[in-house]
Prior knowledge:
GO terms for molecular function: peroxidase activity. Keywords: Iron, Metal-binding, Oxidoreductase, Peroxidase. Helix content is about 25%, strand content about 15%. The chain has 14 helices and twelve strands. The protein is globular, with a radius of gyration of 22 Å. The protein has two domains: about 5-250 and about 445-460, no CATH class; about 255-445, no CATH class.
Amino acid sequence: MVEETSQETASGQVLELADIQGTVLRQRPSPYTGAYFLLRVDDPAHGREMLRRLAPLVATATNWWDPPKRAWLNVAISHSGLRRLGVPEASLDSFPPEFKAGMAARAATLGDVGDSGPEHWDAPLGSTEVHIALALFAPDDTALQSVLATAHQAHANLPGVSVVYRIDTPQLPTGHSQLGFVDGIGEPDIEGSGVADIFRTGADHYGDPSGFGDPVRAGEFLMGYINQLGQVTPMPEPEVLGRNGTYVAFRKLHVRVAAFRRYLRDNAATPDEEELLAAKMIGRWRSGAPLMLAPEHDDPAIAVDPQRVNDFGYRDQDPRGLRCPLGSHIRRMNPRDSLAGTAVDPSLHRALRRGATYGPGLPDGVLDDDGVDRGVVFIFMGTDLARQFEFIKSQWVDDGEFTGLGAEKDPLIGANDGTGVFTIPRRPVRRRLQEVPRFMTTTGGEYFFMPGIRALNWIASVGETSD
């Protein structure tokens, strides 16, 4: 299947699919395997030459599903990386302050404190020595080795660019997260992306486009287009640099699987009660079936039915959280219609999510930490880091005020410290779980800019006469 190079939205905007890095609009297949590489640029000319070589290899929204392209390479650059590559000062200054500061400097806002503080991150994450990020994914090891070889060729004879960090992200054999849950459900339908239409017409694809709600304006995820505010999303200058780009929040999260299992065991009387408690904390059963549609028992048939798995709201169906607790993970990450009539419009705070597991799974039944590093590389994408990613993390994840829960935090990814509470509404008396620990610890992160293809070539050619 070959897609068109552009596509018009319902509001008349034309998405330039051939200029958009594919991971923004497309999801990779399952199963998958992959790796992230973080690079330092010591010689700007070598860095620009590598970008020049990489640009034609980047998987775009046009060729993402073509059989010859069953391996995916995408590129993003930090603010310090843009500076090192020679991007003019006027362009560097046109980026928003949170991107210029970098993720480590935003740690307090993001709840990256205590064990998750930047002083504990894997080096060189959190420093100014991370300049370029490469994401490589494929459906199997053979295809991954092929795209790895291609990336190595782009790096050949360029000693001024070095790999400073690598993390391999093969999918677990179960296809689930480290905690045993199906992931990647409930992504927004981006206006003009064509994913929902392709899915609904039964066309061949490699993605998993389940979970569509009302389309979200393209400008929420791509620069140069109208956003939910009815405005063209601000972008860095010049236009060739910003258009069709987006921001990436890259986070490496260590998952404390044994601690999660112990917490379930300590707060439930039977294995069935453990599963229900896990579902209450997340908002879905491990299969992916939502509590809103399967409140008492898991129903895997719902989880595999894309017409049902996200066909629910909260405001009329469950205003008190008796089915899906108000403070559950999925209800915090996307409140849907539960905030209707308030000053908060959830559509202004959506973000694209791309996660990949790393490390081996903890064997079933093990309740003690084995000392192995395992977790998830979590990716958020959007055109406004402050209004999207940072708002979600600081207001919806780490604060309970918007749901009337006071200081309660997200039980899964919140900055809990062992003194937290998780409330489960029920009749006649609610249940309040005590001493919620932190189940995911941040061990690294950075803000990147993911340019369009034209922008990659512009960066590759800028400043050549100054070296």
